Amino acid sequence: MRTMNELEGDILKTTSLIDKEHPELAKYLEEMPVTIPDNGDPVITTAVLNEYNESLKLLLVKYARPVKK
């Protein structure tokens, strides 16, 4: 498993890529069901960060995939 710093770096890179290359996707970042926990005392673990990172990557992959006719 990757470290928290590595995952945070990947998340930053992916969100920066979305902002620069696909700004139209930025609106979906706040709507994503997989986000940092929103309870009063969130526990941020590598598993939580990894799941969020993977969901960001999936958003890009699905968006970049050409639509078949």
Summary keywords:
69 residues
Can you characterise this structure?
The chain has 69 residues and is mainly alpha-helical. It has one domain (4-64). The protein has three helices and no strands. Helix 1 (4-21) runs parallel beside helix 3 (46-64). The protein is globular, with a radius of gyration of 13 Å.
Set out the fold topology.
Layout: H1 4-21, H2 26-29, H3 46-64
Explain briefly what this protein structure is.
The chain has helices at 4-21, 26-29, 46-64. The chain is mainly α. The model has no long low-confidence stretch (mean pLDDT 81).
The helix-and-strand class reads mainly alpha
- Distance from N terminus to C terminus (CA atoms, Å) equals 39 Å
**Which of globular, elongated, flat, extended, rod-shaped describes the shape?**
globular
Number of helices: 3
Helix content: 55-70%
> Runs with pLDDT <50, length 5+?
none
Strand content range: under 5%
Averaged pLDDT, please? 81
Tell me the domain tally.
Answer: 1
What are the secondary-structure elements, in order, as H or E?
Answer: HHH
Radius of gyration: 13 Å
Secondary structure tally: strands: 0
* Biggest sheet features: none
